[in-house]
Each structure stands twice: as C-alpha cells, then as structure tokens.
C-alpha cells in the first residue's frame, strides 16, 4: 500500500484535540487576553494610572458560603453589618478580593482635588462613588461680616415678632387684608 495513504489515516492523529484557529496579530495582555483593534496601525493603549486604594463594600450575605470566604470577609472587617473597608491595591489583597468577588463591590478611590495630608484627615469625606474629597472649614470674608452687621443693625428692618404681629392683624381684619 501507499505510505502516504497510511499516514493520513493514522488513528493516533485522528484523536488529537483541535486547538482552534488563532488569528495572527492582536495585542496580548496579561492573563491570556488578546485584543484585536479595528485599526491596528492607529490604535494606542490609553495611559492608565491604577488607584492606590480600593473601597470594598459587602453587597451579599456570607450565609451558606464556605468558611474560607467568611474568613476573608472577617479579615477585611466587613463580615457583620453593612460595613465599608479601605484596602491597598497590592497583589496579596487583590488575590483575596478576587476570591470573594461574588460577595463584595470594589470601587477604586480617586482624589479629584489632590491627596489629603495629615492635617486634612479630620476634613476628608469618602463618597459612595469612590471620590475622597477634602472639605476644609470655610471662613467668611470681612466684607461679608460687615454686611451682616449692617443688616442686623438697620432700623428699617422688621424683626420676626413684628412680622408675625402684622400678618396676624391682616388675617383677623378680613376687609383690609388677607384674601
């Protein structure tokens, strides 16, 4: 018989697994992700700076889940109640968050007005969308204080008791005021 004919019908070759077609090109990212842009010549990855901190909120109860999930939530101190934890963006924490991703909501923390300093700790507010805003005490200007004093000391100004008395008198006297 013909050797080529025998080679093509080799039973060992017919049982090998087909790996599939892999298109040439594409941009390979870590984790086995391949992205095929529409215009490969003009496509450029946007610059992304990862967040330093994450806001982690538990959105689902840990009841009827394995003990290792509960242990991770306990380490984050969000196992009981509806708590929020702030976690560093490091590989060890990311690995733990990945294991309980079905129980939590992770939001990157951004600083739209710059990172707070040690003196600003009492004035920082962390919003639900992940914005950390520094709200310092606002002090009035001298011109505003002078205008308020001038308004308070004006003799033509009616105080609240005078306004109440006048309004009541107009209500009682139906022909001269009111409706």
TrEMBL record:
The keyword Ribonucleoprotein applies. It holds the Pfam family Ribosomal_L30. Keywords: Ribonucleoprotein, Ribosomal protein. One of its GO terms (cellular component) is large ribosomal subunit. Residues 54-104 form the Large ribosomal subunit protein uL30-like ferredoxin-like fold domain. InterPro entries: Ribo_uL30_ferredoxin-like_sf, Ribosomal_uL30_bac-type, Ribosomal_uL30_ferredoxin-like. GO terms for biological process: translation. One of its GO terms (molecular function) is structural constituent of ribosome. CDD domains: Ribosomal_L30_like. It comes from the Eukaryota. PANTHER family: LARGE RIBOSOMAL SUBUNIT PROTEIN UL30M, MITOCHONDRIAL RIBOSOMAL PROTEIN L30. Belongs to the universal ribosomal protein uL30 family. This is Large ribosomal subunit protein uL30m. It comes from Galleria mellonella (Greater wax moth). The gene is LOC113522793.
